[in-house]
Amino acid sequence: MLQLHPVVSDFIMSKTSWVRIEEILDGKKTENIVNLRGWIYRTRSSGNIVFAVIRDATGILQATVKKGNLSDEEFEDAKKALVESSIELKGDVKEDKRAPGGYELRVTRFNVVQFAEPFPIVEDQSPEFLLDQRHLWIRSQKLTSVLKIRSTVVGAIHKFFRERGYFEFDAPVLQPNQCEGGSTLFEVKYYDKKTYLAQTWQLYAEAAVFSLEKIYNMGPTFRAEKSKTSRHLSEFWMAEMEAAWMDLYDITEVAKDEVKFILNEVLKNNKNDLGVLGRDIKKLQHIADSKFPTITYTKALEILNEKENMNVEWGKDLRTIEENKLLNHFDTPVVVTNYPLEVMAFYKPKDPKDPKTALCFDMIAPEEYGEIVGGSQRSIDIEYMKRRLKETGESIENYEWYFDLRKYGSVPHSGYGLGVERLVSWICSLDNIKDAIPFPRTMLRFRP
């Protein structure tokens, strides 16, 4: 059981009215006696005074503890309380331009809820050490701001689709089929059989559009990609949509609108967090207010050849380096359509107007963040899909249920997936996608 300080234990147990740090920083609680609780972010003492920076989920605030303004015992507790000690304070809010945020709390009561041990994280520690200590590093101001922005992004995704008449639809995480390539499947023991972790909800979503017509989902996605880059995770979250009666053009426009909607929600709700991360807010606002261009894969190769002197052979997928060079010539995300058919997944149909290409698209973000959205129109040609699956060594029997969808009232339909961590990384201007998710899972990391 938590042991409270015998002198001030009534403080924590009382029906006290608590304020949040953001209320003080917003100027709503100035020149007032307030009660505040949180954790010590930084602390130093000098003789008869302790300077502590306090954090809660909403921000940081300087607190000044002077001997004589509270009991001797409380003052001694303030001196010995280390970083990350949990505390409750009472004090007078005063403007102080030298303090973080322009205000400070002049403390008259100081209760330590729990004295922290020496915190293992100090300045200038390696990224790998911080990942080992992720359960503690998640308290950092940087990750706190990232996770608040991530929360806004997720809420915006739900808001965007629900306001437009989409139904939320859940697909199983345990799936017997591959959709994005058998080499990236995570195998799972399923009683006396085996199954796989979901690469996407798509195949099941295609079943649902024949009843619900417009659906979306956000869920965990698993790809066993043997990649150690700063852009790949083995477990990530994907926001997907699928709709009957939509073609490739329709869904590219939905994707553009969705990304702009998310950006505007973040700009409305997270300006302070973007500031903590050093993000250029004006640049994001410009993007949110701009039109996103659409070009073909073939046009992209022309731009690379003419403006970057890169002679990319037609038929090869665009690599990270080509995507980055292409976006040197745009200041917003760009939609690239009609990639070569033969390098695409089995369910992507050929374009009747250009049969060597597929009716598919990627949305590529600027500032070297690469693909953030990928999608396509869906094939309704059963024989074509069977041939493509056989070419990859897949068992056709596993997809008979999927082919049924083309036998009973099939209609044109399309969908896409948005990588939540890819989008958060770009919005937050992160160096590594691992910081866009609370506990990253990669080829080399599956703990803590």
3D structure, described in words:
With 448 residues, this protein is an alpha+beta fold. It has two domains: 106 residues, Beta Barrel (OB fold (Dihydrolipoamide Acetyltransferase, E2P)); 307 residues, Bira Bifunctional Protein, Domain 2 (BirA Bifunctional Protein, domain 2, 2-Layer Sandwich). It has 15 helices and 18 strands. The protein has an eight-stranded mixed sheet with strand order 6-10-11-18-17-16-13-12. Strands 1-2-3-5-4 form a five-stranded mixed barrel. It has a three-stranded antiparallel sheet with strand order 7-9-8, with no helix packed on it. The protein is elongated. The mean pLDDT is 93.
List keywords for this structure.
448 residues; alpha+beta; OB fold (Dihydrolipoamide Acetyltransferase, E2P); BirA Bifunctional Protein, domain 2; eight-stranded mixed β-sheet; five-stranded mixed beta barrel; 15 helices; 32% helix
CATH topology of the largest domain: BirA Bifunctional Protein, domain 2
- CATH class label of the largest domain: Alpha Beta
Number of helices, where a helix is a run of at least 4 consecutive DSSP H or I residues: 15
- CATH homology superfamily of the largest domain: Bira Bifunctional Protein, Domain 2
Sheet of most strands? 8 strands, mixed
Q: Roughly how many Å apart are the termini?
A: 26 Å
CATH A-level architecture of the largest domain: 2-Layer Sandwich
Strand content: 25-35%
Gross geometry: elongated
Overall structural class, as computed from helix and strand content, comes to alpha+beta
Number of domains: 2
Q: pLDDT below 50 for ≥5 consecutive residues: which ranges?
A: none
Total beta-strand segments: 18
Helix content range: 25-40%
